[in-house]
Amino acid sequence: MSHLRVLGADVEGALEPINVPAYVIDKHGIIRWINPAGQRVVGDVRGRQYTSVCAPEETRHAREVFAQKVVGGAKVTDVEGVLIDANGERIKVELSSVPLYSGGHIVGVFGEVINVEEDEERPPHPRLTPRQAEVLRLLDRGHSTAQIAQ
Fold first, then answer.
1. Considering the entire predicted model, what is its pTM?
2. Pairing of strands 105-114, 22-26
3. Which H/E stretch holds residue 112?
4. How far apart are CA 106 and CA 14, in angstroms?
5. For the chain, how many helices (H) and strands (E)?
6. Separation CA 143–CA 94 (nearest Å)
7. Which of 58, 105, 113, 139 supports an S-S bond with 21, CB 3.0-4.6 Å?
8. Are 97 and 21 in contact (CB under 8 A)?
9. Are residues 77 and 85 in contact, defined by beta-carbon separation less than 8 angstroms?
10. What long-range pairs does 50-57 form, CB within 8 A, spacing at least 24?
11. pLDDT tens for the chain, residues 1 to 150
């Protein structure tokens, strides 16, 4: 039994008020839950296909990442992407997500949106390659070595 179940914790109730945008997508790709912080970013998109909030050029990659989790091939994914916010504007974000299980079967995906606000891009140091500058930026954001390599 899960340690959270032993506690009898109300995880949904705890996730509602946090300031980190969070969401749940069912195994068919429908957004079933989004906390208020997430709604402030993309609006109330419950009942919509998750790709409806992705920038058009991100849709294919979003489907690939989602499929990896739904078929059980990925336990966690951390990716950068571009979403369409509630005002129709493009925003660059980092998404971290995991599969949700019930009775040993994957029933959906839980995720969080990180770095919603656009970081001020600092010009790269003239002696760094573009990849070196990217690695430093990801380190600054707290990414692990494995996440950076991915």
1. 0.74
2. antiparallel
3. strand 105-114
4. 22
5. 6, 5
6. 11
7. 113
8. no
9. no
10. 50/25, 53/83, 53/84, 54/81, 54/82, 54/83, 54/84, 55/81, 55/82, 55/83, 55/84, 55/90, 57/82
11. 466 666 777 878 888 888 889 999 999 999 999 999 999 999 999 999 999 999 999 999 999 999 999 987 888 888 989 999 988 989 989 999 999 998 889 999 999 998 765 556 667 778 888 888 878 877 776 667 877 787
Residue given tokens 């970081």 in the structure block: 119
CB 73 within 8 A of CB 65: no
Could you tell me where the DSSP H helices lie in the chain? 3-7, 11-15, 36-42, 59-70, 130-140, 145-149
User: 7: which 2 tokens?
Assistant: 């506690």
Do residues 124 and 134 lie in contact, with contact meaning Cβ atoms separated by under 8 Å? no
